[in-house]
Amino acid sequence: MTPSALLSLPMILCLGAAATGLLTPSRAWPRRWLALMTMVSLSVVGAMLLVTVRREGIQSMQVGGWAAPFGITLVADLLSALLVLVTGVMGLTVVSYSAATLPSSKEAGAYYPLVLVLVGGVCGAFLTGDLFNLFVWIEVMLGASFVLLALEARQEQLEASIKYMSLSLMGSVVLLCAVGLLYGAAGTLNLADLAVTVPGLGTPNLMTAVSMFFLVAFALKAGAFPLFFWLPASYHTPPAAVTTLFSALLTKVGVYALARVFTLVFTQDAQLTSTLLLVMGGLTMVTGVLGAVAQYDMRRLLSFHIISQIGYLIAALGLLTRSALTALIAFLIHYIFAKSALFLVSGATARVTRTYDLHQMGNLYRTQPLLAALFFIPALSLAGVPPFSGFFAKLAVIQAALRAENWIIAGTAVVVGLLTLFSMMKIWREAFWKAPPEDQPQEPTRPLSLGDGVLGPCMAMTLFMVVLGLGAEPLLELADAAAGQLLNPEEYVRAVLGGRP
Amino acid sequence: MNPVVMHTVARLMAPVLLLVSLVLAVRGHDIPGGGFVGGLMAATAFALLMVAFGRPAARKQLRVHPTRLAAAGLLVALFSGVPPMMQGRPFLSGIWARLPVPGTDGLKVGTPQLFDLGIYLVVLGTAMSFILGMARGEDTTAPEMGG
Amino acid sequence: MELFLAITVGGLFAAGFYCLMLHSIVRIALGLVLLGSATNLLIFTINGLQRGFAPLVPEGQEALSPPFADPVPQAFILTAIVINFGLLALLLVLVHRAAQETGTDDTRALRTELKDSKQ
């Protein structure tokens, strides 16, 4: 298959399968199997894309054959290809988990097509080569997420959905303003073309102002301080599978977009952006973890941890060194898996105990040994305990901070890691260790086994984490190569614009 | 308003609107028009029917569920991009041919027209699902029974 | 003319953000409409206003002859309007449902209702 076909396939697959799914009769099984098969093919395409990019360098394609910078460009560098692969794997995990947990009435509805549209939007955002299409793909993804959140929403979910939607729409307005202002100033929105034209514009202050619009818009999508409050307000309301999908993909698009524009386009005032990102990252880490400490609802608690982990990513981006970007990419991959594993386990726990409230749980260590193990490993990994993937990822961030002689970020990262461990131990103690509350009717529950289908996806995520922990070397090597591409935009520009300077 | 006037106008105008919308969609590649405006215009035809005869009548005239219409359109639009990939060209590249039609110097047909048709259906389906969705529950106030 | 439009854009943004701070969800949605229009007007204005032909290659010619209007911002605005319209329609459907179920569109009341329903 030609590389240019590979680049457009993720979106064609997802959107085509979503449309086909809607055309099939309203039954659970055709839609479920269609979604499963699509996610498998998406993972295969992602892997092929990664191999191609690794072997032959950055790939680009012009949709419809209209030459860049006039047409719509799709580009895959190592970071994009890696993220598309991870998106495919996450999609597969979430769909198989949904098949095991959702009622078939929901499966027969628009659920799977919406998941497919969301995943297609995420892939589009990772692969697009111009800012306006980035906006469009983000909106596609947000639109699908709105409906998924509001689909059969109960009353308490309505308020969360409304809050989430209005803030996202506001973020989109800011992003659109940024895109419009940039087009007015530079006359192009193709990322590679911008990388060439922006340094020569002679209006660095105007560019800095425009870049701040992008910073605000993407920070809101990423859930960074101080624009994170929509996230804990809404992420705990939908079914666990949907929360997992959101936490794995949505905020990552914001982080990816930040990394893309601030390494490729807005490099004219690196000092200012770097300081801002560092402050933002540090505060995000701290507020996220402090918010989590106060929570007793399992999913709310985990939602606050999303924010604190986003802080690590943004701080790593703010350091803007090669080792920091390597750490950013490794951390991103680790954390998508770790957080998803925890959300999936929280869903499985809630299936057993019928609650997300930690006060009302207990003794799961004895009644659900496998579930306990599957919680324990990702929890330790998220907190950064060796030998799991989180240890190496966090170590890489701290090392990068130390190498950049930024003691504050390094110190914050260590302290937040400890607090994360503390808060994971709180879940462990409350849900798994302590005796159950006495007023709680104790019905003897059968221990969940792998055959139930609920634990399979959790198991897969946990395995990834162990593998990524024991074999961290290849991941770090890949991340290093991807960071090299981010810091040297020449290859990106050459891949898109061809021989043009 | 007198429902007789409304009904007559709607009955006369809706087919005309649909026809114009198709013309707009087909001619749109080289001159103003296109699948998007065509689809919107088609949606106005059904909206007119809805205003005149009520929501159920408009829904019945549409025949297909609007979501399925949009899905089918999306499939058609995506499919129109695939043939060039078979030739090793980028997704959505245009392939044009001239059909020998007697009396003209050939009728220009190509994949972009298929794409326009897909967009037409997507826009019609999406607009109708919004319009019909918002009119739900308000049928009692609509001038449904004209006599 | 640009100055006038710039002031209008500013006014629209101010009105939009003011609406966002109100407690009625319908007004918040209206605020988002205003913000969307302000953004579209901003994109329209930012490139400078000039008179030009429609950017369509006339019959029998190979290229455009200047002055022609830049089609890109128009494409942006059209796309942005469609997206904004779609998402707002979704939001309004949701607001409608919230109002039906709780009998109010006040964000404060919606939250207190939540507390009541939990207890």
From TrEMBL, chain A:
<keyword id="KW-1133">Transmembrane helix</keyword>
<feature type="transmembrane region" description="Helical">
    <location>
        <begin position="33"/>
        <end position="52"/>
    </location>
</feature>
<keyword id="KW-0472">Membrane</keyword>
<feature type="transmembrane region" description="Helical">
    <location>
        <begin position="72"/>
        <end position="97"/>
    </location>
</feature>
<feature type="transmembrane region" description="Helical">
    <location>
        <begin position="134"/>
        <end position="152"/>
    </location>
</feature>
<feature type="transmembrane region" description="Helical">
    <location>
        <begin position="370"/>
        <end position="388"/>
    </location>
</feature>
<dbReference type="InterPro" id="IPR003918">
    <property type="entry name" value="NADH_UbQ_OxRdtase"/>
</dbReference>
<feature type="transmembrane region" description="Helical">
    <location>
        <begin position="164"/>
        <end position="186"/>
    </location>
</feature>
<feature type="transmembrane region" description="Helical">
    <location>
        <begin position="272"/>
        <end position="294"/>
    </location>
</feature>
<feature type="transmembrane region" description="Helical">
    <location>
        <begin position="243"/>
        <end position="266"/>
    </location>
</feature>
<feature type="domain" description="NADH:quinone oxidoreductase/Mrp antiporter transmembrane">
    <location>
        <begin position="129"/>
        <end position="420"/>
    </location>
</feature>
<feature type="transmembrane region" description="Helical">
    <location>
        <begin position="301"/>
        <end position="321"/>
    </location>
</feature>
<dbReference type="InterPro" id="IPR001750">
    <property type="entry name" value="ND/Mrp_TM"/>
</dbReference>
<feature type="transmembrane region" description="Helical">
    <location>
        <begin position="408"/>
        <end position="428"/>
    </location>
</feature>
<protein>
    <submittedName>
        <fullName>Na+/H+ antiporter subunit D</fullName>
    </submittedName>
</protein>
UniProtKB/TrEMBL annotation, chain B:
<feature type="transmembrane region" description="Helical">
    <location>
        <begin position="69"/>
        <end position="86"/>
    </location>
</feature>
<dbReference type="Pfam" id="PF04039">
    <property type="entry name" value="MnhB"/>
</dbReference>
<dbReference type="InterPro" id="IPR007182">
    <property type="entry name" value="MnhB"/>
</dbReference>
<feature type="domain" description="Na+/H+ antiporter MnhB subunit-related protein">
    <location>
        <begin position="5"/>
        <end position="128"/>
    </location>
</feature>
<comment type="similarity">
    <text>Belongs to the CPA3 antiporters (TC 2.A.63) subunit B family.</text>
</comment>
<keyword id="KW-1133">Transmembrane helix</keyword>
<protein>
    <submittedName>
        <fullName>Na+/H+ antiporter subunit B</fullName>
    </submittedName>
</protein>
<feature type="transmembrane region" description="Helical">
    <location>
        <begin position="117"/>
        <end position="135"/>
    </location>
</feature>
<dbReference type="InterPro" id="IPR050622">
    <property type="entry name" value="CPA3_antiporter_subunitB"/>
</dbReference>
<keyword id="KW-1003">Cell membrane</keyword>
<keyword id="KW-0472">Membrane</keyword>
<feature type="transmembrane region" description="Helical">
    <location>
        <begin position="38"/>
        <end position="57"/>
    </location>
</feature>
<dbReference type="GO" id="GO:0005886">
    <property type="term" value="C:plasma membrane"/>
</dbReference>
<keyword id="KW-0812">Transmembrane</keyword>
From TrEMBL, chain C:
<keyword id="KW-1003">Cell membrane</keyword>
<dbReference type="GO" id="GO:0005886">
    <property type="term" value="C:plasma membrane"/>
</dbReference>
<keyword id="KW-0472">Membrane</keyword>
<dbReference type="InterPro" id="IPR050601">
    <property type="entry name" value="CPA3_antiporter_subunitC"/>
</dbReference>
<feature type="transmembrane region" description="Helical">
    <location>
        <begin position="6"/>
        <end position="22"/>
    </location>
</feature>
<comment type="similarity">
    <text>Belongs to the CPA3 antiporters (TC 2.A.63) subunit C family.</text>
</comment>
<dbReference type="InterPro" id="IPR039428">
    <property type="entry name" value="NUOK/Mnh_C1-like"/>
</dbReference>
<protein>
    <submittedName>
        <fullName>Cation:proton antiporter</fullName>
    </submittedName>
</protein>
<keyword id="KW-0812">Transmembrane</keyword>
<feature type="transmembrane region" description="Helical">
    <location>
        <begin position="29"/>
        <end position="49"/>
    </location>
</feature>
<feature type="transmembrane region" description="Helical">
    <location>
        <begin position="75"/>
        <end position="95"/>
    </location>
</feature>
<dbReference type="Pfam" id="PF00420">
    <property type="entry name" value="Oxidored_q2"/>
</dbReference>
<keyword id="KW-1133">Transmembrane helix</keyword>
